[in-house]
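for the writeup, i need someone to sanity check this before i put it in the appendix. the sequnce is what the collaborator sent (i think, or maybe the updated version? ugh). structure was predicted straight from it, no edits. if anything looks off just tell me and ill rerun, i have time this weekend
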Amino acid sequence: MLRLAAFQLRHRALRSLALVLGILAATAGFTLLTAGAQRSQLLTTGTVNDNYRGAYDILVRPHGARSAEEDRGALVRPNFLSGQFGGITAEQQKNIARVPGVDVAAPVAMVGYVVSDSHATVDLTDQVDRSRTRQLLTLRPTWHSDRGLSRITDDAPPRVYVTKNRLLWPRSPKVGTRGKLHYADGTDPARVHAQCGNDLTPPLEVLPDGRSEPLCQPSFSSLSEGRGRLLAFQLTDDGSFIIGEDDRGTPIKKNRLTGSVSWPMPMLLAAVDPGQEARLVGLDKAVTAGRYLRQDERSTLQDDELGFRHPYLPLLASATPQIDEQLTVGIERARPGDPGITGLGDDALKARMEDLPGTVLARRTFTADQVYGDMEQHHANVTRIIQSGRPDYRGSSPLAPAPVPVDQDGLWHNEHFLGLPVPRFAQDTAYRSLHRVPEYRSPEFFAGDWSGEAIAVGTFDAQRLTEFSTLARVPLETYQPVEATGADAASRRLLGNRALLPNGNPGGYLATPPQLLTTLAALDRVLDPASEQAKAPISAIRVRVAGVTGTDAASRERVRAVAEEITRTTGLDVDLTVGSSPAPKTVRLGPGSFGRSALDLTEGWSVKGVAVAVVEAADRKSVLLSALVLVVCALFLLNAVGAGVRDRRKELAVLGCLGWSRPRITALILTETALAGTAAGVLGAVLSYALAPPLGIAVTPARAALAIPVALAVCLLAALPPALRATTRHPAEALRPPVRASRRPHRRRTLASLASANLARVPGRTALGALSLAVGVCAVTAVAAILTSFDDHVVGTALGDAVALRVRGVDIAAALGTTLLGALSVADIVFLGIRERASEFALLRATGWSGAHLVRLVLHEAVLLGLLGAGAGAAAGAAAVAWLTGSVTAALAGTAATAAAGGVLLTAVAALGPVTALLRLPTAPLLAED
């Protein structure tokens, strides 16, 4: 039997070679594609595990802190801390820290905005005309923000008055005395106050005739905001400048003349636990100057130079202000003949403060980072605190934050001598409600004193914090500013293809992260102990769970158990942020008040549970692809072995007539197939092992060797149905032509009708050809739908997009492999049809049909076969995917339609190869044989 089977394979070398090549392609393809699918799964799991954790695993917020948008989409919004001032008690924080499994429980207590009045120093030395006796320079500032789209020009610019006349500055009393301000020439300060119309004490200018005239300052309100100030300097004969006097009346000289422009910057203040914060994000290692906050460090009482005691709050300040603002200062000089230059009367003094037209001498440009200064300048008064709410959205796609009214006068009203500096963009459009926290005076304050100074003990750089993956993070707004990029071409063009950043508007849509950090223990001199916020000062607690190593079930259960226990013991809102990933949300921002146009922005909200969804989708996809490749291989082999049996039906019928039993004929067919399968399996193992390295797929020798038993098993299973079918009929029936006779003759006028009639005459072959094509189209439809379904489950987030990009190449290889197997099946069926009808084609040619007519007939049959098989295959593939995924989507329907169209085209292309054999058929020998 074995020798006869080997002889049969050698005798039909072409058919045997085609069978071996088919099995070889199927087994090698199965080995490579399943290895690729496994590698795809491993890559996906590895990528997810590498990017599984952000800074924390669980976010705990006060009950009701989630917005409606967060609840609807399982999201964590950016700026989730903004608008949340307190709500969690210190006792609740301690209970959370004691929950078994909690590794780190880092609280953050949002306090509010305080204003730090920085100053941009402008060098004016080169702009001073040393030939003039008196001259007036104007520092005209213009602020820019929102990537240059918003612009504010100060309507009360500071002035610098330079004179060669002598200047007298008011002298302060000595420390510890009860003296008052006085002038060296005995001028009564009360007369100066009356002349200037306010209680300020300006310097005096001594005129050549000996009279002293005050250089009146602007009104109190302008001065309190650092605007419209008149700075006076005396130009000496040696070219230096006298800028004032010390306590003994000695002139203070400088070689360079500088002016300053006030630049109030809102600083968001928050309190943290230094130890927990160091463990969570390595804040202690991000200190760039000074020192780190000490655990439980409290505010201290210090004496100022006048002997008054004030509480000083320890701060860790951000090394940069993290706001998008720029300043351009135009230096102008009033022309000779302008008011305030030619005369010195009261009208002239008043005219000095008017908006004089001048000659622009130079321009200076500053950024917020440059003016923010070094550590010694990082201080703020914390007795006046501004708190903001959270945006209220109208609509959901896109999100449209609603503008809110702000009582600017009530918010920034000046109650004390130095007042409260107003940030330049504070009057821009607000999307967050603002209110001013009632001032709290610590009992240690000196009676009537209002000062509560916060001084930086160190600075930190957020870029030096422990790095966490950008693919699986939740908003780190404790340290990172929120960015929003243009969502459409127009917005991107307006922003210059840059991200929109927060500015100095506390009510702006994008909020800054806290730039000032203090300790929870130091809040006793900031918050009124009787206030609700002081009773529950913590705004959020970020929890890291011990023992979490990835997306494995044990790690997920640890996080779930801790979150459940926190909810049970505290009743707070708990978000499982482990495995989260940023996802874009479109936000439509209305126009600003200072020139910014409306913008459509893409903002990164965090989707919870992305990592788990990606891994589950990858597991499902890997199983589906592996099963699909195996099914396609089996069906291909079933078709190939069946075609071989049909090609030998007369020979097998003769053997039956000679007395061979049915089991013996079946055994012969199975033995031949087993020999071909074993040979193809060995070649497939060698081929898959050789091709794996160039394709970037890991195939071990054991996996490659597995191709041999797989090929043998699949071949035997695929050959068994046609082998049994070959012995079920009487041998005499197998000697008859396989064409069914027509009951009634019909006249066919077109090639299409003749082609359909030919397909109907051979229903078995037609059904088998349609089935072969349907298998391939079903495979393509299913693979494409699986990929689409996988993408639908994971794309749209940073982690999902990264995973999809990494595994898509392997998936495309799987789709191409299944398509190739389907194409081989179609080509084999068309070739077999031409072989079986060779005498018919010879007769048509003998009766006058041209080769072109015959080709068109075969192509018509192929296209009709394609419509039948591709339609059925696409429908079957779509139905299978819908059953596996549980849903029918528009994308699935589109994929099925595309696959069906491709299947029809593939049938026509596949028919071109066998058509060449048709054109080479010998007409005379075939007619003589028939």
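The radius of gyration is 43 Å. The longest strand covers residues 102-123.
thx in advance!!
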